[in-house]
Structures are given as structure tokens and as C-alpha cells.
Amino acid sequence: MRHLKIDNKNDNWEQELNEFNSNYNNGKWFVKIYANWCGHCQNMKPEWEKLIKNENDFFRRNDINIVEIEESKLDDRTNQLHQSRGFPTLIYYHDGEKIDYDGEDRTKQSFINFLKRYNEESRIGGGYKKRNNKSHKKNKRYYKKTNKKYNQTKHKKNNYRKKSVRNINKK
């Protein structure tokens, strides 16, 4: 497990940023891109620090590297690679596959649940793309609803057509 902190306090930040940009395709990386002036980042900071201090065993067991990048150290290449659009941006890379943080809130337990979900699924052999099952179920429900509406309107149209055909035949 490596912990790279790329900010103004780190003298080797350029070297660490290059190391991360060249290695994020290999292994597991949990990335936080933040801004010191951002209120959301400041609110999340205590939970993030709890995660790093208390969960070292979890990160070692699962071989997850941690990277913290301050927005002032983002260059164009890094920003294009990781596509941070707001702060804080949390990304999990698993052998180069980018997974945006989709937790409900920014707490230590949510971070751990998020990481466990993708680590366990990748070990099972089904791959971590199973994360889309929830959205897939929602989509099924959505399509059932829309198909139901479509079938109702189709049914109404057919009844209207039948009535108009009957009226024409009566004349």
C-alpha cells in the first residue's frame, strides 16, 4: 500500500504525480482530488483522515493505494486523465477501470462500503461491473412503466380507430 499526498507541503509532488499517472492502470487506487478553499472538501476532511488512520489494515489486505491530489497541483494531463469536474472528486481505479464514487454520503463507513463492494465483486469473478445491477433494475422498472404507458396509449388509439371504422361502415 502506498499513500501519495500531492500538495504544497510535499517537495516531491511532481515525482509522485508522475508516478501515479503512469501507474494508475496497474493495481487498485483510491483517489481524492480536492481544493483547500472548498467547503465540501473541508467538511469531508475529518472523515477522510479517520479512514486513512484507522483503516490501514483494510488497505494493506486489499492492496489499495491512496492518492490525494490538491487542485493547485493538477496539470492539464492529469485533469484530462481523471476528469475532475468538481471538488471533492473521489475515484477508484481497479487495473485502469475508472469507477466514480457513488456513495450516499462522505463518511468513513461509506468509503469503506464503496471499496468493499468493488473488491469483493472483483474477487468473486463476476467483475466489478456488477455495480450497474442497481441501475439496471431501475432501468427495467422504468421501461416497464413506459411500456405500460405506451401500451395504454396504443390501446386507446386502437379503440379510437375501431370506433372510427365502425362509424364509417355505418354510413
Explain what the structure shows.
- The protein has 171 residues and is α/β, with parallel strands linked by helices.
- It is built from six helices and five strands; from the N terminus they run βαβααβαββαα.
- It has helices spanning 13-23, 39-54, 56-62, 76-82, 108-124, 133-170; strands spanning 3-6, 28-34, 64-70, 89-94, 97-100.
- The chain has a five-stranded mixed β-sheet.
- Helix 2 (39-54) packs across helix 5 (108-124).
- The chain is globular and about 90 Å long.
- Residues 123-146 have low confidence and may be disordered.
Biggest sheet details: 5 strands, mixed
Structural Rg: 25 Å
Strand content: 15-25%
Shape: globular
Question: What is the helical fraction, as a range of percent?
Answer: 55-70%
Unreliable sequence segments? 123-146
SSE order, one letter for each helix or strand: EHEHHEHEEHH
The count of helical stretches stands at 6
Give me the side-by-side strand order of the main sheet: 1-3-2-4-5
Q: N- to C-terminal separation?
A: 85 Å
Structural class: alpha/beta
How many β-strand stretches? 5
> Which whole number gives the mean pLDDT?
76
Keywords:
6 helices; alpha/beta; 171 residues; 5-stranded mixed beta sheet; single chain
